[in-house]
Amino acid sequence: MFSVIFYNICSKYTTLLANVLKYAGKSAIIHNMRTIFYDTVVEACSSLTSACLRMTPSCEAALRRARETESEPSAAFSLDMLLQNAALAQQKRLPLCQDTGMAVFFVRLGQDVHIEGGLLEDAINEGVRRGYAANGCRASVLDPITRKNTGDNTPAVVHIELTAGDALSLTFLPKGFGSENMSRLYMLTPSDGVEGVKRCVVNAVKEAGSKPCPPIIVGVGIGGTADKACVLAKQQLLREVGAPSDDPTLAALEIELKDAINALGIGVQGFGGNNTALAVHIGKYPTHIAALPVAVNIQCNAARVAEVTL
Amino acid sequence: MEFKRLKAPFASEDVAALRAGEFVSVSGTLYTGRDAAHKRLTDAIKSGQPLPIPLEGQGIYYVGPCIKDGNPVSAGPTTSARMDVYAPALYDRGIKVTIGKGDRTQNVYQSIQKNGAVYLAAIGGAGALYADCIKSARVVAYEDLGTEAIFCLSVQDFPLIVAIDSLGNSIYNR
């Protein structure tokens, strides 16, 4: 096998050469890609971490709607506090919640992009390191065995999806662990069906009770493998709060489950009432003939998400 | 909204008079502590070592604050249930008040009743508002734990709700 490195050749010739090499059954390294510099990614990720200082507008709107219908005094007081807190955090640039989370990144990397100057994940971690320090966000990440804190909230958890084109988009989800600890994975069997799925989701929220800082947003991933279902559930938390699924069947299931969850009576902070979930967001993926995986990932009331495309 | 004013450290009679569902406003000093600090404190109790903070009449706030330039900039409560394995040992040694978010397990209810103590709920998610009520903060123990160190906080008008009172009444829908 031989490799050839060409620089500064116009795209027509590189494409031609690539075809020649393809028919010859060889591989080649041909730079015909968009270059994005390591430092640009660091800067972008550092900026994204300022999402810790503000609630997403769709979450704030959902909290306001909840407040209008709330009749439990403690729950109403809590919602007022949360709305005041969101305003104060934004005004004074303070972290909305002290749990500024483990930094989760969903990356869509165009396959015509070349990162110059270092590894993509290193750039993301450097951005987290700088951004968390600059914004006064908490270093919450440690070794799971020794429990020794890394001191700078790295490493991030990075999910990379390769896409067409030459854009690099980064979505940042600072995930607090009051809610993350309430995640559940159920490996159902086909006979459990959709009814089984509903039971699992409601059960996960019921078991979580007052712990994940309700009112919550419930992310659900149905299908795939165990790991795929979990990632899918977390990805649902990136959607605007309450925006229905594009799939009409899932959209109907989202409403049905939200109503079932709100009938549990957990309420805001666990103080009772009908505002346990602000939204249920469901995603699905094909699965195996033997399986029906269901993952539940819960987002607390302090929803923070930011995205940038380079 | 009617708030009952409370001074920290706490007088037993003040604590005994609180009832689940009441709104309280706490001013004075509180100690912070979460998972790692609780483990060290209870290990010290088990092995008879001296404790780095006084417990009698004190309140522990379950929080790991965000600190910027030495000051807390966000300091809302963490999930109290994780401290449930440690809490009875501390209530037994004089802690009168714990502050956090979410319901507690039965052993904590029993310990609260036995000791004439109380559990106050802070609003989970309101980190910036609570930081705004903290007038000063200094690390008093376990500095190596970073945000999990024990801080002594001077707080003013800390808005809380009585979640479990000394009779075992609860605000949670159990």
Can you describe what's shown?
- The complex is a heterodimer of chains A (310) and B (174).
- By secondary structure, chain A is an alpha/beta fold.
- Chain A folds into three domains: 32 residues, no CATH class; 94 residues; 133 residues, no CATH class.
- In chain A, 38% of the residues lie in helices and 24% in strands.
- Chain A is built from nine helices and twelve strands.
- In chain A, the strands form four sheets. In chain A, strands 6-4-7-12 form a four-stranded mixed beta sheet. A four-stranded mixed beta sheet of chain A has the order 8-11-9-10.
- In chain A, helix 1 links the parallel strand 1 and strand 2.
- With 174 residues, chain B is an alpha/beta fold.
- Chain B has a single domain, classed as Fe-S hydro-lyase, tartrate dehydratase beta-type, catalytic domain (fumarase).
- Chain B has five helices and nine strands.
- In chain B, a hairpin with a 2-residue loop joins strand 4 and strand 5.
- The longest helix of chain B has 12 residues.
- Chain B starts with a strand and ends in a 10-residue tail after the last strand.
- The interface between A and B is large, with 44 and 41 residues.
What's the quick description here?
Chain A is an alpha/beta fold. Chain A has helices at 11-23, 38-48, 57-69, 73-92, 120-134, 177-180, 193-208, 226-235, 248-262; strands spanning 5-6, 29-30, 34-37, 102-110, 113-116, 157-163, 168-175, 184-188, 216-224, 277-287, 292-299, 306-309.
What CATH architecture of chain B do you see? Alpha-Beta Barrel
In terms of quaternary structure, what is this? Answer: heterodimer
The secondary-structure class of chain A comes to: alpha/beta
How are strands sequenced across the largest beta sheet of chain A?
6-4-7-12
Report the CATH superfamily of chain B: Fe-S hydro-lyase, tartrate dehydratase beta-type, catalytic domain
Radius of gyration of chain B: 15 Å
Low-confidence stretches of chain A: 1-11
Share of β-strand residues of chain B? 25-35%
Shape of chain A: globular
Distance between the termini of chain A: 35 Å
